[in-house]
Design goal:
single chain; DUF2089 domain-containing protein; DUF2089
């Protein structure tokens, strides 16, 4: 029974992974890791360049 459940879980995981690959645009897949980190920080900062400037310890012209 446990083997059957694990098999189903594995199949579902693979199915979900293939769906996610279809959802991710090709241009995102081509981004460097550093760019993805920046985008994630930017989104988490609600698009606030002021907040991003603080995080990267750079000045932000106002």
């Amino acid at each position: 029974m446990l083997k059957y459940i694990l098999k189903i879980i594995k199949e579902e995981r693979e199915r979900i992974h293939s769906i996610m690959i279809e959802i991710i645009p090709e241009w995102i897949e081509k981004l460097e890791d550093e760019d993805l980190v920046f985008i994630k920080k930017f989104v988490l900062a609600s698009g606030s360049l002021k907040e991003i400037a603080k995080e990267y310890d750079v000045t932000y012209p106002t």
